[in-house]
Task: structure prediction
Amino acid sequence: MNIEGEINAEAQSDHSANRSIELGMVKRDDGTTEVTIMGDGSDMGLFGIRNRDFFHGLMRQIANAGAKGSRPDELGVRSMLGFIIEGKPADAVEASFLSQMAVCHRALMAAAHRLSHAESLEEADFADRSFNRLVRTYADLTDTLARFRASKEPKLNIHKMASTGAHASIGNLAQPTQQAPLSEGATAPLVSRRRRLTDKRRSEEAVPRRQRNQHGQS
Result:
């Protein structure tokens, strides 16, 4: 792909990420929100989801989590959906983590609002505890998502090479590492010295020992 094609592909990707998802939301008598997804379902790709049933169920769960009063909070629901899309989920698991983070963030900001507008010590204490718990939960979800994504990345293997220090390679941990053989120029001095020592030893063994007389003279 040339540079112009890459620029066009990036522009199309940005355009698809910025488009609004066509949703129809109606509040039922039991307090739940009925969600209708318009279009051909191409928005599933923005969430990294391939299964249509899971996608519809996730949209309804998010809408119910963002329900407010007698009418669904369409702006709040779209804000959570935008948060998930900005996270660029690669599969259904990442989409679930990002959905939980979006709902937690919404509840966290609501607790912050109650804390700043508390009119009594009891209200302030309750809002403060809720806010701190939600902050810790959000941090845990962020860390879990980061570790899940890191587990899918290729591992960095470090192998020790003779007289060359550490050698790093990226690949499968089970794949054996082949070491480069020593060159002929590097091994020639060692072979030559070994041959000289061997020849000297053989020449010494070939010389007959002289018989000595009783006085130690030859």
User: Anything to note?
Assistant: Residues 121-151 form the longest helix (31 residues). The radius of gyration is 36 Å. The beta strands are 23-27, 33-37, 67-68, 71-72, 156-161, 165-170. The chain is about 55% helix and 10% strand.
